[in-house]
């Protein structure tokens, strides 16, 4: 039997056989809900988790209490039920985030795993309006989590994936952007949600670019680089087909590669013509790219990444925003 972590490779297990099980945190199961998926427990002496609760039974306080008393932290689901579990978590995420009895690190695990899995699905079908709406709802809950709990951002950082996938990169940039916007006092909760939606979807245009270019294990040639530079425009075009996100969210998608010294793309804008939301996401985007491992380069640590951005890209970012980002990451 293989046990697969949902936060490591969110959708990979769903394509495997029924003999594979995914551990999920007990805190994600809400009282008096019918899960819609079978729950399994790992028991001593058994090669595989054994069936504990069938999908049609309510998860009650009595059941939860027995598991807690038995010091159960994770239960298991069949990998084939990953989509059912995802829907269940999305439906209950607001309650999970608001539950003061759940430790911030456990909330972070649930939020991050759910966001990563959803983004992988979204990249597979970026024009499906339902997935876009699910992404927006997830951003609302992530914003609520970060604004509600001072430990939330650090907890999310602790569970962040440092192996680069386009979908986990999207989640990371969203988290950094929301936290920086909060620190800057960049509007109210609705404004931060709008920025977060754009940040979550900022790279969706890459879904229409040749996968051989996206996954190339080495430097891009000129032709490939020109193709990559079109992804902000492609992203806006894709999302316009859904007509579902706030207007200013499109700005983040279109401008997150613009730079204050006019060296960015797709338009080479000067700083005063780059929307503040895009300036925030540009910093988050570069930082995450530096601190995640790719096939052709290793990851650098937080301090090294900030130094690279300061020394080698000093004119690329809004200086005041970058200063606040450094302070935020240095805490």
* Overall radius of gyration: 20 Å
Look at the structure and name the CATH superfamily of the largest domain. Answer: Hypothetical protein af1432
Based on Cα principal axes, name the global outline: globular
CATH architecture heading of the largest domain: Orthogonal Bundle
Poorly predicted regions: 1-18
**β content, as a range?**
5-15%
Query: What class do helices, strands and sheet pairing give?
Result: mainly alpha
- Alpha-carbon distance between the two ends: 41 Å
Largest sheet, strands/sense/barrel:
2 strands, antiparallel
Overall average pLDDT: 91
CATH class of the largest domain reads Mainly Alpha
Question: How many domains make up the 3D coordinates?
Answer: 2
Q: Helical segment tally?
A: 14
CATH topology of the largest domain: Hypothetical protein af1432
Structure overview:
With 331 residues, this protein is mainly α. It folds into 2 domains: 1-80, no CATH class; 103-329, Hypothetical protein af1432. It contains 14 helices and 6 strands. The protein has helices spanning 61-69, 82-98, 104-124, 129-148, 152-159, 166-184, 189-200, 211-214, 222-228, 231-240, 247-255, 276-291, 302-312, 319-329; strands spanning 21-25, 33-34, 39-41, 50-53, 58-59, 74-78. The protein has a two-stranded antiparallel sheet with strand order 1-6. Strands 2-5 form a two-stranded antiparallel sheet. The protein has a two-stranded antiparallel ribbon with strand order 3-4. A hairpin with an 8-residue loop joins strand 3 and strand 4. Helix 6 (166-184) packs antiparallel against helix 7, helix 11 (247-255) crosses helix 12 (276-291) and helix 12 packs across helix 13 (302-312). The longest helix is centred in the middle third of the chain and has 21 residues, at 104-124. It is globular. The termini are far apart. The model is unreliable at 1-18 (pLDDT under 50).
């Amino acid at each position: 039997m293989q046990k697969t972590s949902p936060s490591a490779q969110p959708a990979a297990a769903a394509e495997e056989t029924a003999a594979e099980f995914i551990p999920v945190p007990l805190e994600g199961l809400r009282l008096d809900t019918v899960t819609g998926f079978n729950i399994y427990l790992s028991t001593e002496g058994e090669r595989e988790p054994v069936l504990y609760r069938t999908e049609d039974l309510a998860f009650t306080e009595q059941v939860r209490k027995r598991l807690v008393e038995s010091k159960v932290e994770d239960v298991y689901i069949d990998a084939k039920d990953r989509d059912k579990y995802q829907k269940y978590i999305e439906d209950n995420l607001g309650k999970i985030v608001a539950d003061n009895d759940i430790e911030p690190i456990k909330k972070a695990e649930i939020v991050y795993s759910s966001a990563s899995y959803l983004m992988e699905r979204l990249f597979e079908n970026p024009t499906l309006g339902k997935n876009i709406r699910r992404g927006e709802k997830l951003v609302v809950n992530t914003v609520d989590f970060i604004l509600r709990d001072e430990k939330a951002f650090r907890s999310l950082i602790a569970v962040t994936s440092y192996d680069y996938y386009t979908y986990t990169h999207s989640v990371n940039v969203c988290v950094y952007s929301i936290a920086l916007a909060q620190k800057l006092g960049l509007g109210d909760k609705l404004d931060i949600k709008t920025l977060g939606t754009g940040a979550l979807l900022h790279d969706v245009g890459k879904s229409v670019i040749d996968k051989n270019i996206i996954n190339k294990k080495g430097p891009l040639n000129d032709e490939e680089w020109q193709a990559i530079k079109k992804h902000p425009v492609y992203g806006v075009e894709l999302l316009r087909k859904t007509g579902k996100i706030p207007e200013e969210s499109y700005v983040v998608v279109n401008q997150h590669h613009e730079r204050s010294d006019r060296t960015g793309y797709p338009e080479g804008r000067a700083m005063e013509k780059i929307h503040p939301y895009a300036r925030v996401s540009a910093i988050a985007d570069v930082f995450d790219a530096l601190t995640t491992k790719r096939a052709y380069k290793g990851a650098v640590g937080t301090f090294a990444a900030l130094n690279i951005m300061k020394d080698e890209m000093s004119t690329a970012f809004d200086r005041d925003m970058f200063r606040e980002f450094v302070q935020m990451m240095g805490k």
